[in-house]
Write a structure and sequence with these properties.
Strand order of the largest sheet: 1-2-4-5-6-7-8-9
CATH superfamily: EAL domain
GO molecular function: cyclic-guanylate-specific phosphodiesterase activity
Number of domains: 1
CATH architecture: Alpha-Beta Barrel
Structural class: alpha/beta
Organism: Magnetospirillum molischianum DSM 120
Shape: globular
InterPro entries: Cyclic-di-GMP_PDE-like (IPR050706), EAL_dom (IPR001633), EAL_sf (IPR035919)
Radius of gyration: 18 Å
Order of helices and strands: HEEEHHEHHEHEHEHEHEEH
Strand content: 15-25%
Number of helices: 10
Protein name: EAL domain protein, diguanylate phosphodiesterase
């Protein structure tokens, strides 16, 4: 089987993230983590946690994860290195006794060896028997090929697989990947389309597909009780979002902490807390 390689991205980082900041991150041995609960809609029980990366400079200033990962795509080896550290730390510091989901970048998977038996990223997933992987696809045929290769490898390990951010603005749905996953994660974008009858029909079709094929339906971006009630009406099995912020768990490596939030802050300016919560990874 020919090896699928990671894509090459332009060197300009999103929002002009300085190279010095990427160098700062690469010089750190660990990556912080935030664990957001996935809640069963019928019981209110935590069914799993999703581990997300939380980056800081050595001065303690937070950096939006999407900015970091988009910048790292310019260098597949650097992307792989940070993805390995992030997954290692997310697995090591996760709450005990509850299943864990982690996001895995298909390009990092390819940079680590793809479907080869000695891919270190796949070795990390063997450290727990209750771990799941969320695949993120973007608008690229190459993404779909990488995702399918990763899905085959994960299936060989017996890992539960979810397709993340379905219906998000930058998402791509591959039929082969959709057919092979266990869980469907519905992007928060659908909350903004809840009054659109065409969007509602499409969402109903997706929910019906999940129900008919035995896949769990997970709704992201739940902020209010009204959001929760709407998700229940759509057939949600699990939900997550800032409505459950009191149950978030965080871990950070020891770093010097300095005051943050000045005019040159690297953190994304937020429309709401939800914007930060959904800087995925």
């Amino acid at each position: 089987m020919s090896q699928i390689r990671p894509r090459s991205f332009p060197g300009t980082a999103v929002e002009d993230l300085p190279a010095s900041i990427i160098a700062d991150i690469l010089s750190q041995s660990s990556v912080g983590a935030e664990y957001q609960p996935l809640i069963e809609v019928n019981t209110g029980r935590i069914a799993a946690y999703e581990g997300l990366s939380r980056f800081r400079t050595r001065q303690g200033e937070p950096i939006a994860p999407d900015r970091v990962f988009k910048a790292l795509h310019a260098s597949p080896p650097a992307l792989y290195e940070i993805e390995f550290r992030a997954k290692r730390d997310q697995i090591a510091h996760a709450p005990a006794g509850i299943p864990l989901f982690v996001n895995l970048d298909p390009d990092a998977f390819a940079a680590g060896g793809g479907e080869e038996a000695d891919n270190p990223l796949m070795g990390l997933l063997s450290l727990r028997n209750d771990i799941g992987v969320e695949i993120i696809e973007n608008c690229s045929v190459t993404d779909s090929r990488l995702s399918l290769a990763m899905l085959r490898r994960l299936r060989g390990l017996g890992v539960r697989v979810a397709l993340d951010d379905i219906g998000g603005g930058d998402s791509l749905i591959s039929f082969a990947v959709l057919a092979g996953i266990d869980d469907m994660k519905i992007a928060r974008d659908w909350l903004d389309r809840r009054d659109d009858p065409v969007a509602q029909r499409l969402l109903s079709a997706l929910a019906g597909f999940a129900r008919d094929t035995g896949k769990r339906l997970i709704f992201e971006g739940i902020e209010t009780l009204e959001d929760l009630a709407w998700a229940k009406r759509q057939g949600a099995d699990l939900v997550q979002g800032f409505l459950y912020r009191p149950q978030f768990v965080t871990w950070q490596p020891d770093l010097p902490i300095a005051p943050i939030g000045g005019p040159n802050s690297l953190a994304r300016r937020r429309r709401s807390e939800l914007a930060w919560a959904h800087e995925r990874r």
